[in-house]
Amino acid sequence: MVERDASDLHMTAGSPPVIRINGRIERLLDYDPYSMRLAYTYVDGAVMASDYFPVMTVKAGDHGTSVVEWSARFKRLDYWVDPPPEGQDDKSLMDRYNGLYRAGLESLKRVVEGVQ
After folding, report:
1. Looking at the domain assignment, is residue 1 inside a domain?
2. Alpha carbon distance 97, 116 (integer Å)
3. What is the CATH number of the domain that holds 25?
4. Is residue 34 part of a domain?
5. Which residue intervals of 23-86 are DSSP H helices?
6. Could you give the CA distance from residue 25 to residue 116 in angstroms, rounded to a whole number?
7. What DSSP state is assigned to residue 62?
8. Each residue of 19-78: pLDDT tens digit?
9. Between 78 and 95, residue with greater pLDDT
């Protein structure tokens, strides 16, 4: 929780843990420390997509470095409507998430490297 700057941890018997980050509630779906992989989804919040399932994986890079991959599977809202409402088309969503992931990975790199 500290690493993700989470404010709340919600635990219920028989359910995966849920954390609140920046006002959004995320449910941890899979965590494998040996393969350095985690998968999560949003329980609430404005993700602008349905069936949103992001995965983060850390792999060994060259010369003692690490490579972090952050990807997601999702559908646009109203995926059955063609053409979709303005700003909710596939390209807009891809641009949005690519930008969010790029900013998140750059922030993670600064934290790991000790640069604030």
Report:
1. no
2. 23
3. 3.30.530.20
4. yes
5. none
6. 26
7. G
8. 666 667 777 888 898 999 999 888 776 678 888 899 999 999 999 889 999 999 988 888
9. 95
Number of separate domains in the chain: 1
pTM for the model stands at 0.73
Distance CA 3, CA 115 (A): 15
Would you say residue 95 has pLDDT above 90?
Answer: yes
User: Residue 26 in contact with residue 42, Cβ under 8 Å?
Assistant: yes
Any idea of the CA torsion for 63, 30, 96, 84, to the nearest 10 degrees? 140
* Assigned domain for 2 exists: no
- Cβ-contact 83, 75 below 8 angstroms: no
The pLDDT of residue 116: 64
Q: What range defines the domain where residue 92 resides? A: 8-113
pLDDT at residue 2 is higher than 50: no
